[in-house]
Amino acid sequence: MIWLWVVLALMTGGVLAGLLRPLLRVNAAAVARADFDIAVYRDQLDELRRDEERGTLSASEAAAAWLEIERRLLAATAKAEAPPPAPRPARFAAILVMLTLPIAAVGLYLALGEPDMPDQPLASRSAERALLAEDGTLDPAKVKVALEARLKADPESLDGWLLLARTDASLGAWDDGKAAYEKAMAMSKDRPDVMEGYAELLVGSAQGQVTDPAMDLFTRAVAADHNRIKARYYLALSAAQHGDLPQAIAGWKALEADAPAGAPWRATVTEMREEAERRLAGGAPDASPSPSTDPGGPRDSAAAQIAKLPPGEQGQAIRGMVEGLAARLEAHPDDLAGWQRLARAYVVLGEGQKAEAAYRQVLQRDPKQPDALWQLGLAAAATGRTQEAADHWKTLLDQLPPGSPEAGRVQKAIEQLQAAK
Length: 421
Prior knowledge:
Layout: H1 2-23, H2 30-54, H3 59-81, H4 90-112, H5 126-129, H6 140-153, H7 158-171, H8 174-188, H9 192-205, H10 212-224, H11 229-241, H12 245-258, H13 266-282, H14 299-307, H15 311-331, H16 336-349, H17 352-365, H18 370-382, H19 386-399, H20 405-420
């Protein structure tokens, strides 16, 4: 027991030293310290924004971090703006502290102390678990509520509106996300990253189609900042969706050339470019039926006819072929090759949900089909289903020759998934 009192005495002495030092001299650096804290918190917000753009943080994780940094920033700002305290007789205060603090501390400890009580676990703190789901992960719906409450108190926070918009997008609350981005657009005065994010939300709300409003925003974002990777990707995708495969290929090749070493998005761009090149080599997406479902009429003839059409009409003709194949597969659902062609065609057209559904049909008929495993892994990873993505890619990896470039690519994708957890 004596050691407990020795430790308490040392702690009390340390506390007294810390309290008496500012009382016995003028603390001229208080405001400067607050200004320094403000600068640090603003740098943290900038870094948080960059991390989210790089994809190292999800919208929910970024929103939770933003809420905490914003709280500290507001506190530091209030501290910096507060008037300096009125002068007090510092020496008298020091003597008073020396006499009363040890007595008060011992008295409180004897009355209230419970040295045997274990530390409170971090997860049990209500303020910190308020944003968590039952499984311990961030709950986007709770993050949305917290952001909305914060924005009521601070409606001029651009970062807050951006995080709310991205959280809405992750929830599929497209109308709410559009409203939040409209606020951010007005406050940012057409900042390129804001235009890019708004356009991406419009694409998501249109189930992967690059609509005219999204196209306009992407174009303006790239005009203001050529390094907007997402905007350039979607501009190429828009060209593919409208049947202009050469322009799409050129756009994706330019992105590959500009990709930094280890860029996690390069594999997706390469996949899209290679798929477009395969379609272009055949004159059109490989959406024609297999011989088992359409024995009459050569495929190359239809492709050649489409290739002669203007780009705008090519897109309509290609969609007609895809819809025709989808209808025939409903009548002949056991045609594995047909499902593969339909899935690849949907990828080129940018219809992600339909492509995923078609690849699931492929996997039902061939559980080890490499292209389906890879594409379903990409779709799962893009929507936060990391375990599902890892399962698909591990199944694919088991089939590939060890040490092959393909195996290395899949292994790297799995490692990136694990690092993101």
